[in-house]
Write a structure and sequence with these properties.
about 1100 residues, 9 domains, three-stranded mixed beta sheet
């Protein structure tokens, strides 16, 4: 550089803060390598021009000098000079943007042409309107440009800036939010970002206020859509918008939520079917998509297409009918879907199958969805698998295995029969000391050997656990026992229940078709698979390892003898010992392809009652238990895997079931003195540690729960089970003194409340924890079915309730002053004067605004006692008047069982749910604020408060689904639930506030209801909680279906309202009447 000119430039640089000269000095050597002398002069001159603009402009110059070495390394000298020119012009014209331009350049300009650099600067300038908000937006653009250009072409960037500019004319804040959200959105959009920008531009023109909601919705919607279909999704969304769909954010969210429920690989097929609807009736497109998951749960894609065609035909002649068809809100839609569907739902067949099961067993057996058992977290985790825990048959939600409904129904029937068979034929009544009738007993000798072996120190909680304790490999012994016992039950079912035998065999053969090939398994696993296929009636030859063919024949012989209709569960145990002794000697090694032989056992029939153990087995049994077995480290074999589950048999957990039954008995006889066999906490812990039925699920991690939690849940499950009561209503809970002090909780949605101790005449501070949670969701079809069944009543009630809604302006007469004279009152006054009577001087009228201002909380008792059958509570037919004579007793028991299968079994909770649905329809007609909550719990630290509909929540399909899942739970600790409900009403601004409780009995809970002198502890705390509500201006009312309610309600409610229903069937009508009366 020329010395004279350099001196002049240095002199000018010194007029600015030192940082300017310092950054120039650092950058100069780097630029001298690339720029000519003239270009260097222009560079430093640009810095001086920028710094000279204002007192603070030197900071922009510092930034320019600082980033110049980086930029010159990324651009050609000529392009560098274009960049310098663009930045200098921008900084001089809009100083506010200069710093952002230069600071953002290093991450952006590499590879850019000089034209794009100039245009980039212009885009930022385009957004600036000489205001600080526009400056903030423009700076944000420069800072985000590098991220934007990773996703957009420069042409798309230019269109996006035009979009931001248009939005900014309405709101700079909104434009800035759109820019921020776009940075997260563009990576999700896919290749055609231009389509999304076009849709955004269209929305600006027709409804710019939706933009923020649209971008938020798109962020949630796009990840739900198959990546290959996102461009199409946006195309279809744009078409919907152009066709006049107003609420685009909600529309794309609902469509994406439906798509999320369908496999992404099927999104293309679904959109192919749906797209023609846009030309026919745009709104039907989204309704079809939203309904498709429900339809596809019942039919295949081919039949979905047929369903769509039926709806299209209807749309052409009756648009409203077509829309109702696609919403599945018409009988034609449901009927057509039923016609083309082969699926059978548990909900539709549960009543029939329940009666069938009761007829088979001759006693009361309940049916439930398998998901209900899984939700209890007591050891069962397969929500789509049939099972039983000894008292209830659990079945999967839907069956669609076959192409015909009749075949799917048969599957349900066979599955139910097998589960009933387990209960009826003693699968859970195994007794260790009971001798086998078809095998020589070996269990006693095993017990003697074990006293000197490794298992002698393991205490057994149940007989079946005691049996499994003898085996080194518990998993293997459990698998063998399960297969043989299921085979025995199958044999017994086919022998005892001839009517279902043919269908039963067909389901068994179908199960055989999907069994794995033994040659794909290791040696031990192959022999166990052989056992499974024998239990399913396999007649064809099966490949077995050559080296273990004799062992395979021995297994077949033992299994066939055990799987006989004359066998007992004790025979199963003896067969388990024998087959285990064989299999434990078989290495679970890989078998070469050439080392398999077919085993043809078609002619090998059982020896009947003349069975003898296979040769050499006695020696194997004698050696079993003498040692701890081989060290796994000494053998070269793969890890053993249990056989694939047989679908119609489902989960079989004899250890857990026996434990639950023993716990139930312990709870029933707690006060009877029979506690010699009581289960201790130590025994429970030992059970959880040893049982393979629990360890398998815990190791899989499928349940996400610990063994301690399972044990606790099991204790809760049986601890709250209602003992049989001679009279209807809730059985007594034994009081447990609750020790300890105040409770603390830092968990979300938990609330701590005091409790009133009437003995001390004071509160126990922070004594109870209320755990608020949303009720689980079921199906909204339940709500619709109730509405349909009560259709006429609902219409009548809605009309009656609509009369409660006041007019906006109501005329008020006979006023001292008002809007005008009331001519009727003037005439009356003149008549009074003529007749000599004193006239009324109030002759004016005016219109006053009148509003209905009501807020109500419905508090629903969901305790275990609401599972009571309504018929039981209406009659005394269940009183236990058993004759003492054994012969008469058997006749009496048989007739009692027969009566049980004829009864109707609507429960108290079912009628409460129906009443709620009627009430909701009525309240929605008048617009009152209302919330619906259920409560239950177990102990003061676990008062469960279930939100069915929150007071500030709009009524929706979600609320409908929650109502479906209302079910009997645990105990009834009313006080904390009332206090929590009061806090909700207290936060609402309403003239009339009402807390309406619906209960079926006295408040009871662990440590809350005391027998004897202090029986009224819970009643007094509940009374105090109601008084607290009253003092806060909240009216309270209790409706109970407990006939004995007067005994305690007189104390509990005192001067507050309550009613005891003598006839529970009047509950829906009475609830409507009371609500109208209490809120008018």
């Amino acid at each position: 550089m020329n010395n004279k000119r350099t001196t002049q430039l240095n002199k000018k640089l010194k007029t600015f803060p030192p940082d300017v000269k310092d950054e120039f000095t650092k950058a100069k050597p780097h630029l001298e390598e690339y720029l000519t002398q003239q270009q260097l002069y222009e560079w430093v001159d640009s810095g001086i021009k920028i710094a000279s603009q204002s007192n603070n402009a030197w900071d922009i110059s510092v930034n320019m000098f600082r980033v110049s070495p980086i930029i010159i390394g990324s651009l050609k000298p000529d392009d560098f000079m274009k960049w310098l020119e663009a930045g200098t012009n921008l900084a001089i014209k809009h100083p506010m943007l200069g710093t952002a331009f230069f600071s953002s350049s290093p991450s952006l300009v590499q590879g850019m042409s000089s034209t794009n650099i100039t245009d980039w600067a212009s885009l930022g300038a385009q957004l600036y309107k000489d205001t600080w908000k526009s400056g903030t937006l423009s700076n944000r653009f420069f800072e985000s440009s590098a991220d934007l250009l990773e996703q957009l072409s420069f042409e798309e960037l230019t269109r996006f800036v035009s979009f931001l500019d248009i939005v900014a004319k309405h709101s700079y804040d909104l434009s800035s939010e759109c820019l921020t959200l776009a940075l997260r959105l563009f990576p999700l959009v896919g290749e055609d970002k231009g389509r999304f920008i076009s849709l955004s531009l269209n929305l600006v023109e027709t409804g710019w206020r939706q933009l923020k909601a649209f971008y938020d919705a798109s962020l949630k919607a796009l990840p739900r859509v198959d990546r290959l279909q996102r461009k199409r999704f946006l195309d279809l969304s744009e078409r919907l918008h152009l066709e006049g769909i107003i609420n685009m954010p909600n529309t794309i969210l609902e469509i994406s939520q439906a798509l999320q429920l369908i496999e992404k690989r099927d999104h293309c097929k679904l959109l192919d079917i749906a797209e023609p609807l846009l030309d026919l009736h745009p709104s039907s497109f989204s309704e079809f998509i939203k309904s498709s998951p429900i339809v596809l749960a019942k039919v295949s894609f081919d039949k979905l297409d047929a369903w769509c065609e039926e709806g299209k035909t209807l749309l052409k002649t009756n648009p409203d009918g077509g829309m109702a068809f696609f919403k599945i809100e018409s009988s034609r839609s449901e009927k057509f879907l039923e016609e083309i569907s082969s699926a059978v739902e548990f909900q539709t067949i549960s009543n029939v199958i329940e009666l069938y099961c009761r007829a088979l067993a001759g006693e009361e057996i309940d049916l439930a969805d398998s998901r209900d058992l899984v939700e209890k977290n007591i050891g069962w985790v397969a929500a789509d698998s049939p099972t039983t825990e000894g008292s209830t048959v659990y079945l999967p939600e839907t069956v669609d295995r076959y192409s015909k409904k009749s075949e799917n129904f048969l599957w349900y029937k066979v599955v139910s029969t097998h589960q009933v068979g387990r209960m009826e034929f003693g699968s859970f009544r195994f007794r260790f000391d009971k001798p086998s009738t078809r095998f020589e007993n070996t269990r006693n000798s095993l017990e003697l050997k074990s006293t000197e072996g490794t298992n002698s120190n393991i205490s057994a909680t149940t007989d079946i656990q005691k049996f499994f304790n003898f085996f080194e490999d518990r998993q293997l012994s459990s698998d063998i026992f399960s297969v043989i016992e299921d085979g025995r039950v199958d044999a017994k079912v086919k022998d005892d229940y001839k009517g279902i035998s043919k269908g039963y065999v067909s389901i068994q053969l179908d199960a055989l078709k999907v069994r794995p090939n033994t040659q794909d398994l290791n040696a031990r696993e192959a022999l166990l698979e052989l056992l499974v296929q024998i239990s399913l009636g396999q007649k064809k030859s099966i490949s077995v390892p050559k080296n273990y063919k004799e062992e395979a024949l021995a297994i077949v012989k033992i299994a066939r003898h055990a799987m006989d209709s004359r066998s007992s569960v004790e025979d199963t145990s003896e067969a388990t010992v024998r087959i285990y002794a064989i299999l434990i000697e078989v290495s679970n090694e890989t078998v070469d392809e050439d080392d398999w032989d077919p085993l043809d056992f078609e002619e090998d029939e059982s020896e009947g009652d003349n069975f003898s153990d296979p040769e050499g087995l006695k020696e194997t049994l004698d050696s079993m238990g003498n040692s701890a077995g081989d060290d796994p480290a000494d053998t070269q074999e793969d890890k053993y895997n249990s056989p694939q589950e047989v679908d119609y048999r489902g989960e079989f957990k004899p250890e857990l079931t026996q434990l639950l039954e023993k716990l139930r008995e312990q709870g029933q006889y707690k006060d009877g003195g029979n506690d010699t066999d009581s289960i201790t906490q130590e025994m429970m812990d030992q059970f959880a540690k040893n049982s393979v039925e629990l360890s398998q699920e815990l190791n899989d991690g499928a349940s996400g729960i610990t063994s301690d939690e399972i044990v606790e849940n099991m204790l809760k499950e049986v601890g709250l089970k209602k003992p049989e009561s001679l009279e209807g209503g809730q059985g007594p809970l034994v009081h447990v003194d609750e020790t300890g002090g105040e409770l603390e909780s830092d968990e979300p949605e938990t609330f701590v409340y005091d409790e009133w101790d009437f003995r001390a005449g004071d509160y126990k501070p922070r004594w109870c924890i209320v755990r608020q949670k949303y009720m689980a969701e079921g199906e909204d079809s339940y709500y619709g079915s109730i509405v349909q069944s009560y259709g006429n009543l609902i219409l009548q009630v809605r009309r009656q309730f609509e009369l409660l809604v006041p007019e906006t302006m109501r005329k008020e007469r006979r006023l001292q002053d008002g809007e005008d004279i009331d001519i009727d009152d003037v005439i009356e006054t003149m008549i009074d004067i003529k007749s000599g009577s004193s006239p009324n001087e109030k002759m004016y009228w005016r219109r006053n605004k009148v509003h209905r201002d009501v807020a109500v909380v419905f508090l629903l008792d969901t305790s275990a006692s609401t599972a009571e059958a309504i018929d039981d509570s209406k009659s005394n037919s269940d009183q236990w008047n058993a004759p003492e004579d054994p012969v008469e007793y058997m006749l009496w028991l048989r007739s009692r069982r027969g009566e049980g299968t004829k009864r109707t079994y609507k429960r108290i909770i079912d009628l409460e749910k129906e009443a709620l649905i009627l009430l909701i329809n009525a309240i929605e007609a008048i617009g009152d604020t209302y919330g619906i909550y259920g409560f239950s719990g177990y102990g003061r630290e676990n008062v469960e408060f279930y939100t069915i509909k929150d007071v500030d929540e709009l009524f929706s399909d979600r609320v409908k689904r929650r109502i479906d899942r209302i079910a009997p739970l645990h105990a009834t600790r009313m006080g904390p639930a009332i206090r929590h409900s009061t806090s909700k009403l207290e936060s609402i601004d309403a003239r009339t506030k009402l807390l309406f409780m619906i209960s079926d009995g006295r408040p009871q809970d662990r440590g809350y209801s005391r027998e004897g002198v202090e029986k009224e502890y819970a009643v007094h705390d509940t009374r105090m909680a109601l008084d607290e509500a009253k003092n806060k201006g909240i009216n309270t009312f209790c409706l109970t279906v407990d006939r004995n309610g007067h005994d305690y309600l007189k104390t509990m409610m005192s001067d507050m309202g309550y009613e005891v229903l003598d006839d529970i069937y009047t509950l829906p009508h009475r609830l409507l009447y009371l609500y109208r009366k209490l809120t008018t």
